[in-house]
Amino acid sequence: MTVIAPETTAAVTQGTGRDGGPGGPGSARTARLRRKIGDNLQAYVFLTAGLLCFGLFSWWPLVKGIILSFQQDNFVTDPIWVGFDNYQAVLDDPLFATAWLNTLEFTGLALLFGFAVPFVLALVINEFRHAKGFFRFAVYLPVMLPPIVSVLLWQYFYDPGTGLFNAILSGVGLPTSDWTQSPKMAMISLVLVSTWANMGGATIMYLAGLAGIPGELYEAAELDGASVWQRIRHVTIPQMRFIMLVLLLLQIVATMQVFIEPYQLTGATNPETITVMILIYRYAFTVNNDFGMAAAMSVLLFIVLGAFSALYLRLTRKAD
Amino acid sequence: MSSTTRSLISEADLRRGHGRLIYRLVLGAMAVAFVLMFIGPLYWMIIGAFKTPIELAQTPPTILPTEWHPETYLDAWNRLEVGRYMVNTAFYALGGWLIQLIVDVAAAYALSKLRPVLGNVVLGGMLASLMLPAAALLVPAYLTVAEVPIFGVNLLNTPWALWLPGAANAFNIYVLKRFFDQIPNDLLDSAGIDGAGRFRLLWHIILPLSRPVLAVVSIFAIIGSWKDFIWPLLVLQDPEGQTISVALSRLAETGRVTNNEMFAGLAIASIPMVVLFMIFQRSILNGLSAGALKG
In the CATH scheme, what architecture does the domain A86-319 have? Predict the structure, then answer.
């Protein structure tokens, strides 16, 4: 409790009250209570805008989403409760399995590149005695770009006929690819641009972690005759375990919400790259115009991601 | 950390004959790779806009334009109305930043220094929203903005559809509250005795002391709103009011844009963020690093 001037006065008043001075203990208590109510009122005045924003645009949509997933609502007549019909419809949709498998494929591939590559890059950059600032700047530069810029730029790079990638590949005598237009390469193309655009964040965080490893540990390991590989295995990785786990969870949660890459590069209709978010978007806004189905799918996604988020928050709060 | 701190490989190993050579080779190779991988695409985008559409699409590609066409940037600005969308985006970003700061500073101040009854419950509820994946709330949030409960207004196609949900930023409140918590209460007490009210304490004592954290919160707020795509795609469907990201995506789909004009549009959309990064590189990267270490 912040003790500020008026309360100090209240305490003094109470003191005189106990001595049998004017007012008596009763009125001192009421004055105190009144002060307390006044303090709380003032505090809640400061909180009003925040409570309204959170209440209306964060807490209410959560409740609304769950309600909506059990309703059919055409937004003209009153909504009808339909039990688990929306969930049934979503599960019966042949695209349901496709969307989840594609999302898992994207997440898996994105982790393969986006989890391991930044770690190796950070490990090497951390050993440099020169130009560290340049490496940090360069790797983070794509993260600053609006994601749609990265995606649209890569769309030109991927163009099978006029794109830069095929020009370079054929220039050095390698086979070219249809990239986003090839069923086999479509998902990998999405992962590549996503990794390029996002891996700076992980690299910077790994660098921060590496800088925090006490040098004595390496010194001791070296005195024991540990090679560089052994030092990485027995010093670096154990020291980085926490930050690696946190980033792993963050990346799982982020990549499972993938939307821009398939939306822009391969389109919301391409079965090779329909992800869970694309399916929700289709249910709500394009193909079906069915908010109930979209809400049901959102609740399912929420349950899956919520588990990872909860784990993440538990880990980080504990470390605090 | 200073560079003299011992890391994986010791100073001595790097100085030895072989070590020095390998170090130079790895450093050089990495520098070239980073330039090609991370600076290269940006170079290609900015310089590509100066080429003719045919030269931009030709194989083998040219490093520099054979003829320079700076007017492509003007065409993109005017004909594609990139200028209008840049102004829109700047307006949304600055307005959103201001509202985020007002709402979140007031809330964090109340939770940190005024500590009302149930304050911890409120804070818990706000932090719990960090657990909610934005994607899963997209559809109900869209419907909420289309008809805000209690008030019954439709915010679609107004800036408020971006600003008000954006102000519900638990990360800001968490960071600000943690900073305010560290400001000693004695400091406020001594000012309070002079009869300063709650608002004046915030304005004259807390905020001036909080400049570093306000700067970080501000930078991330601006970056966040500039990069946002899916939410403005849904709530600002009226083409006139769209953000640059959504407008570029729409223009790309119409197919009536030449590649060099599109490159110019992409470059223009990126410039504010690249400039911001050059100026505030330290704050941005250190903010990120601090987040990594503290979680």
Answer: Orthogonal Bundle (1.10)
Burial letters B110-123, b for 16+ CB under 10 A, else e: bbbbbebeebeebb
- Say if residue B109 is in the same domain as residue B238: yes
Q: What percent of chain A has pLDDT over 70?
A: 91
Q: What is the mean pLDDT of each run of 10 residues along chain B (295 residues)?
A: 66 79 92 96 95 89 92 94 96 97 96 91 90 87 93 94 95 93 85 74 90 92 95 95 96 89 96 95 88 59
* Residues in contact with B3: Cβ distance below 8 Å, sequence separation at least 6, in sequence order: A129, A132
Entry pTM:
0.88
Give buried/exposed letters for A271-308 (b at 16+ CB in 10 A, else e). ebbbbbbbbbbbbbbeeeebbbbbbbbbbbbbebbbeb
B115 and B64 part of one domain: no
Alpha helices by DSSP H, listed for A212-275, are 215-223, 228-231, 237-255, 260-261
Which member of A44, A58, A257 has the closest CB to residue B135?
A257
Contact of A176 with chain B, judged by CB distance below 8 Å, is answered with: no
Query: Contact, B66 vs B55, CB < 8 A?
Result: yes
Q: Which residues of A touch B224 (CB under 8 A)?
A: none
A220 interfaces chain B, CB cutoff of 8 Å: no
B274 Cα to chain A: minimum distance (Å): 7
Q: ipTM of this model?
A: 0.91
Residue A81: strand, helix, or coil: strand
Question: Distance from B292 to chain A by nearest Cα, in Å?
Answer: 5
Are A46 and B107 in contact (CB < 8 Å)? yes
